[in-house]
TrEMBL record:
One Pfam family recorded for the sequence: BPD_transp_1
Assigned GO CC terms: plasma membrane
Disordered: annotated span: 1-20
Keyword line: Cell membrane, Membrane, Transmembrane, Transmembrane helix, Transport
BP terms from Gene Ontology: transmembrane transport
Biological source species: Salana multivorans
Compartments (UniProt record): Cell membrane
Top-rank lineage group of the source organism: Bacteria
Gene3D superfamilies hit by this protein: MetI-like
InterPro entries: MetI-like, MetI-like_sf, UgpAE/MalFG_permease
Full protein name: Carbohydrate ABC transporter membrane protein 1 (CUT1 family)
ABC transmembrane type-1 domain boundaries: 89-301
Chief subcellular location: membrane
Length: 312
């Protein structure tokens, strides 16, 4: 114990306790996660980085034995100089510009509607909104493929019946069709996040605004939405990372339309290069570049979000 004396009185202060070693129970609980994290994330990432620095070359006009040759960043230079890669990045960027704002705004409107208790049976409404997210992405894409194929889709047949000749899988529309599938699948997920954040808002603020005569729309715009800005930023960040990794929807639609090629997105290009062209080294380089793009987007958004919070 450390003793301090002040005049006639005496004040005692406990000395800081030394930090104890981690409890075995914590290590046991964290162990499975650490093993899985290393096995499915760190090890493949390190291996991909290692393979991206090599090329497999054969002697004797390709008929001789093959060997790994260290080429440094030659694979990365090849990827960055490939016009097809940047075309794929451009498609994904345009997809994100369309899909992310529409999805997040729609999710916010639904969450505000649920929180306002203006809907009948909000629990049922919330569950109905969340159900599309519970459908696996591949299954959801197959369902929408049925609605897109002109020979099968009742929607397309109905539009044709009224004189509107539209091809939902054409060169000009397939990007919107892919975005529509993602919006349908992921809106409910964001609704759950926004609803949970809205329910954490102190009701005293909302009631005080109502007493002051604020409308429900004014309360939503001026009180509720600013208070859940952190949740909005989180969903925007996750959506941007998911956009860079776009794969399932266009990969399945590729089987029913020629508008989607094997290198339509960077992820599809990485898969086709790795397994289609049997070029694991260049495919690894593409994967690392995709990861770097996602990381840069995350850092830029985080810096912008931090600056916005400081200026607010």
């Amino acid at each position: 114990m450390t003793t301090l004396t002040r005049g006639a009185g005496r004040v005692t202060r406990s000395a800081p306790r030394p930090r104890s070693a981690p409890r075995p129970a914590l290590l046991i609980l964290a162990g499975p996660f650490a093993i899985l994290f290393l096995a499915v994330y760190v090890v493949p990432l390190v291996y991909a980085m290692q393979r991206s620095l090599f090329q497999v070359r054969s002697s004797g006009l390709g008929f001789g034995p093959s060997e790994d040759v260290f080429v440094g960043f030659a694979n990365y230079a090849s990827v960055l100089a490939d016009a097809a890669f940047w075309a794929a990045v451009g498609r994904v960027f345009l997809y994100g510009v369309i899909q992310i704002p529409v999805m997040l705004v729609l999710a916010m409107l639904i969450a505000l509607l649920i929180d306002s208790r203006a809907v009948w049976r909000p629990t049922v409404f919330r569950l109905t909104t969340f159900l599309p997210y519970a459908v696996p992405g591949i299954v959801a894409t197959l369902l929408w493929t049925y609605l897109y194929v002109p020979q099968l889709s009742p929607i397309v047949k109905g539009l044709h019946a009224i004189g509107w000749q539209v091809d939902l899988l054409g060169q000009q529309t397939v990007l919107l069709s892919v975005a529509n599938i993602a919006i349908w699948s992921w809106t409910g997920y964001n609704v759950v996040i926004y609803t949970a954040a809205l329910q954490a808002i102190p009701q005293d603020l909302v009631e005080a605004a109502r007493i002051d005569g604020a409308s429900e729309a004014g309360i939503a715009v001026r009180i509720k939405v600013p208070l859940i800005r952190g949740s909005v930023g989180l969903t925007a960040l996750l959506s941007m990372i998911g956009t860079v990794q776009l794969f399932n929807e266009p990969y399945i639609l590729k089987t029913v339309t020629t508008a989607v090629s094997s290198d339509w997105t960077p992820m599809m290009m990485a898969l086709n290069t790795t397994f289609g062209a049997n070029d694991f080294e260049r495919g690894s380089a593409i994967s690392i570049v995709i990861a770097l793009i996602a990381g840069v987007l995350a850092v830029i958004y985080q810096l912008a979000s931090t600056r916005s919070e400081r200026s607010a």
